[in-house]
Amino acid sequence: MRVTNSMMVRNMLDHLKNNMGDLNDLNEQLSSGKLFQKPSDAPIKVADSMNYKSQLNRNSQYQRNLGQAENWLNTTESALKSGTKVIQRARELTIYAANDSMTSEDRKSVAQEMKQLRDELVDISNAKLGDSYIFSGQKTDQKPFEVDNSDPDNYKINYNGDEESVKRRLNENVEMNVNLNGKEVFEKEIKALNKIYDDLESGKTGEEIGENLSAMDTAINDYAELRSQIGGKLQRTGNVIDRLEANEIHLRDLKSKNENADLAEVITELKMEETVYRASLASGSRIMQQSLVDFIR
Do β-strands 167-169 and 132-133 pair in parallel, antiparallel, or remain unpaired? Predict the structure, then answer.
């Protein structure tokens, strides 16, 4: 094949163009810190990075869900703790009032504190987390219990919520129920306190008043069991949070290795490409200077 001067110049220009392209790619990596600037630069790496980013987004959403679940469970546990104290105090008053040495006037005085305990339990049942009532089922904008004052001689409470579960997804495979049904947790306890109040007000005997103790014991045991369930759920959410945080660190490390440039390596390659480019320019200058006139001299 006959090699002409124009062929050598074209080849030289093609190589210069390629060298400049490589030099530009390395300069962009050095200035941005990234191995690629657009999908066409590294399609497989871009797909991997998009996958890592998607996993990180899901991880972040699960962590937000867990934060909400923990807040809900902690608020519920606090309400149950307060409710337990109310029931325990009501039990103490019931034992005190069941003593046959108590007069009807004494029992009416005890009744006033019992009434306050009843109303306090209603307030506890209407606990809120932010703008949400936690014992209303999925009707979180509705106050769970309201006292019906239409008949002053007949104490009545109405439950305004529903009995649906409030759930939060903790990860791809786990969805947790984070609420307790206010109707099941508080209604019979409020009515039990009101019954003791009525018994004290109506002059029932000590033996009749003492018959309410079994309801108090049942309520205390039920609340202890519910608090144990809440504690187990809080333990589980804590374990899941630890796993998600560890997984986030791992995913961020993989994403970083996939798309972040090794600056030391890029600088080394950049210097090598600069040397190649300068050598190409030097070689090209010799080729472009040669002409027929140069040889006639």
Answer: unpaired
In the CATH hierarchy, which fold is given to the domain comprising 65-254?
f41 fragment of flagellin, N-terminal domain (1.20.1330)
> Tell me: the pLDDT tens digits for 97-154?
998 888 888 899 999 999 999 999 999 999 999 999 999 999 999 999 999 888 877 8
Cα gap 78→83, rounded to integer Å: 9
Question: SS3 for 188-232, per residue?
Answer: HHHHHHHHHHHHHHCCCCHHHHHCCHHHHHHHHHHHHHHHHHHHH
Shortest CA distance to 186 belongs to which of 113, 79, 89? 79
Please state, in angstroms and rounded to a whole number, the distance separating the CA atoms of residues 170 and 59: 9
Q: Looking at residue 3, what is its pLDDT?
A: 53
The contacts of residue 127 (CB under 8 Å, 6+ apart) are 75, 76, 78, 79, 133, 134, 135
Pair of tokens at residue 120: 């306090």
Question: Closest Cα partner for 157 from 169, 167, 149?
Answer: 149
pLDDT top residue among 121 and 248: 121
Per-residue model confidence as pLDDT tens digits over 173-232:
889 999 999 999 999 999 999 999 999 998 888 899 999 999 999 999 999 999 999 999
- CA-based nearest residue to 235, from 70, 52, 32, 84: 70
The DSSP 8-state label assigned to residue 158 in this structure reads E
**195 alpha carbon, distance to own chain's centre:** 42
Backbone φ and ψ for 175, nearest 5 degrees, come out as: -125, 125
Taking the C-alpha atoms of residue 213 and residue 221, their distance in angstroms, rounded to an integer, is 12
Beta bridge partners, 177, equal 167
